[in-house]
Structure formats: C-alpha cells, structure tokens
Specification:
The structure is a single chain. By secondary structure, the protein is an alpha/beta fold. Helix content is 43%, strand content 13%. The chain contains 19 helices and 13 strands.
Length: 572
Amino acid sequence: MSKRFINSKETVVHEAIDGLCSFTPNVARLDGYPDTKVVVRTDWDKNAGKVAIISGGGSGHEPFCAGFLGEGMLTAAVCGNVFASPSQDAVLAAIVAVTGPAGCVLVVLNYTGDRFNFGIAAARAKNEYGLDVRIVIVSDDVAIPDAKQPRGLMGTLYTIKIAGAAANEGCALDEVEQQAFAVAACAKSLGVSFSSCTLPGADKKEERMAEDQMEVGLGIHGEPGASKVKIGTANEVVLHLQGGTEVHTDSASRASRVVAMIATTLKKNLPEAGDVALMVGNLGSVPPVEMSIVTGALLKQLPAKLLVGPALLCTSLDMNGIQVSALPLTGQMQARLAAPTTARAWPGAVYPQKVRTLPMPLKPPPSLEEASPSRDVKIEALIKGVCITLCDAQKELDDIDQKVGDGDCGSTMKEGAELVAALLGKVSSNSPKMFLTAVGRALNSVGGSSGVLLSIMFTTMAGTLEEGATWDRASISPAFAQGVATLMQVGGAKVGMRTMVDVLQPVSEAMVQGSSLDEIVKLAKDKADNTANIASTNFGRSQYLNAETLKGEKDPGAIAASMVVAKIAAGC
C-alpha cells in the first residue's frame, strides 16, 4: 500500500470534509453521512434575496470544490466519493439547504454522471420544492479539437468566481445565469501530466508514461489523457495533436517546450485580440519552484491581464502535472474575477508585472589583488603546503563525512584551500592583516556552513591585528584565539559537540599559553581522535544520528583542523 496520511480509503472523504470544516470559518456540513456529503456556508441567509451558487463533483480534486465556499463564490459544495459523481439526493439536499426565493445556479462539470445527477436534482427541486434552479455546464477542455463533449476542467472556477461575484452584488437570477453561461462558453483549458495519480489506499500503479513522454488532455480522474506524446517543440506537439507525425524530444529543454505547447494550443482557441485572464493550477505534486518557473514562462508567451495562481485549484490527487486555463475578458468579467471573496482556497487574481530590479545597495568590494604585493616567501611556502595538504585529503575527509554527515567536508576544504592558494603572489603575504582579510573574503564564497564560519574566523583575526603586525607568535596567537571565540559565538558550537571547534579552541588556548609546537600538534591530534568517543551531541548534522552510528567515527572537520596544525608546525 502506498504511504498516505489516511486512516482508511472508505472514510477518507468523510474525514477530509470534517477536517476542512474544523479549520474553515463559516462552513458546516449537512448531517447526512455517509451518502450525503454536502458543505454549506453558515453565514448565508437564503431568504436575504441573493442567488445561491452551487457546484460539486467527485472528490480527489481538492481544494475544488469545498475549498471555494465563501462570500463571492460558492454557497454550497456537493462532494462525491473519490472521482465519483455525488448522488442526486445529495445535490438536492444542497439545493434545498441554501436556495431561497432568489433561486440558484448549479455550475456543473461536463461529465455524464454529474450532468445526470445535477440535472435530476434540479428538476426535483423545481417540482417538489418550487425552487428556481438554473444549470450551467462547463466544458472547457480543448485537448481534442472539435470534440462533441469536451470535459469540464479547472476553467469551471472562472464560472464559479465570476457568477459568485455577480450574485454577491445582488444581481437577479437571470443576470447571474447569463454571466455564468458567458464565462463557461469562452473559458479554455488544457492539462498536461508527467505521471498518473494514486487512489487513496491503493498501491502505486506502474507508470504508463515513459521518461520522455507526457499525457496531453486530462485525465483528471486517473484515466489516460487524450493523447500520450513525446515531449517536443511546440510546433511538433501541436502537429501531433492535429493528427500529424511523431514528436521528438530534447529532455534538456523539457519545461520550455511543454510551456510553448500549452501556449500555442490555447492561443488557437482564443480570440486574436482582447484582454485575457490566465489560471495556472497544480495537479497535485508539482513543487512550488517548478510552478513558478512554468508560470513565468507562460506569461511570456500568453500575456495576461489577470493571473490566478499558480496554486492548488483543481487537482487530481498526487498527479505530477499542471492545468492552464485562459478566459477572454469581456463586460464585467475582469472586475468580478478580481472582486474579493472569503473563500479560503481562492488565491486571488493579480495583475502580472514585468520582472523589476532595484539597484544593489552594496558597493563592489575592492579587488583582492594588489598591483605590487609585498611578499614573504617563507610564509607563502607554508600556506601553500597547508593548501596542498587539504586538497590531497579530499577523499579521506569526504569518506569520513559520508558516515557522519553529508559527505562533502573534504570537497569543501579543498574548495577553500584552492581559493586561498590563488591569493599567493597577488596579495601582500608579509602583512598578516592584509592577507588574512583576503582569506576571509575568499572563504565567504565557499559552500556550506564551514566556509562561512572560517571566513568569520579569519576576518576577525584580521580585524584584531594592527596594521604593522607581523607573523610572529606574539601577534598571531591572541588574534587566532579571538577568531576562534567569534567562530564559536556565531556558529554556536562548543567543545565536545563533534566539530572543528574540538581542535581549534584548545589549540588557540595552548598558543596563548606558550605551549611548544610539539605539544600543540599532539594536542590537536588527541582532540581530533577523541571525537570518535563522542557518541551523543545536540549540534550539527551529528545530532540526527544515533550513538551506535557515531561511536568510533571521528569528526572530519576536527581531523582537517588537526592536519592544518601539523603542517604549520612542520613548516615553522
């Protein structure tokens, strides 16, 4: 069974509705479980003279439709089981619960079960309760040219939003119905997906699409799309949709080609001129970063007056795909689409804008290179030796870090060492203040926390030194101690937490106290080796590992620090 946050597939819809009612203001469900799953507004007075807006369908498309309950959108939502139309009794219950003398409009997706059950319920509401009920069927899918029964997709939300705004303004039933029909008639939608979906409580099916394929034309109930094609250029995909030849692909440009295909197909179904609204919906499992990329690309090819999304709007459980819906804006559609609503799932309609940039507030830092650097050959040889040592130890340190961290300690140390080595001959090496300043700035570009922390340490050391300071121990020792102290303060690490601080802090103390080089080298090695005995810590990546994993494993940062100490001592 697939891993899911459910209790049982039999109760998933009931529990989801109750959950929604528990965190959504002004909504409640009718007491009709298990057959009647209807959610209604509690701030609605059906005798107050406003037209009710009702929609519904199978569950699994959340937040459609219960998420769009609120002033200015739906008055009631009728939920079926997953991918199954609600019963006529459930629809009738929703109509009777919220419809008063002003009447109601049923917004129905163009699926056989929905049309039948909503249609029968509307007839019964008129016959048995004397209610004035109008039906507007949405069929916005353009995946199949000249289809006799295009499916209802995410464009249904345009109808719900704009008709809901008209009803909230106090428009009469005829006008609300007319507005709903106008929107439903011109909304156009297309969906593409790279995967199918998984029903709650069911095993994940073997994927029916190859790595270089997508399905065009949803398919939002788990059924195959209208067409399964390779991902190619916009012209190739459109040609295929019209009965042309096979499509070829270059996977490196997948995103841009998919967007181009969607834009080209929608343009064929829109008027050549006039303002257009664009809606971008996540089918369930597309990461937000990808939705932003897709939306930005779409806006370049389909300039929109208003944009809804990107957001979860009308999903298909965990499907890895998107829906795009376009609406030519006429009459009062724009104002009503942008009108406020209390529906929690509605992301709002925004006016897209070109990407704006503001001037950088920081001045470019002065170059690290000097025209005529003053050099200290002995110091440069010592520094070069340390850098070579760290570069040579890359694999050893990475292998150790693979056991207790993310496996990149050696790579990070090598990156930093190469940056420092590149300074030799370009920055005055006979001035510790100038050289350490350059080292601090260079290490700031190293990835990971260790690069930043070492940058802080060396920058602090440089700030502690006087302009005329030399590389003698009397000057460097207190500066090093201050640098380590600042590193600990900013980074939060203390001795005993399995980090490079286990070596740096005691070494800095020993230097200030005047210990011999041999004593300092031994101290550094002993402290690095001792990290293998620290089997519990609440700091760094090691805090997520158990004692059994940490036992006997040294910390790679501490080992790297010990290597540097030994190399410096050997060269002094």
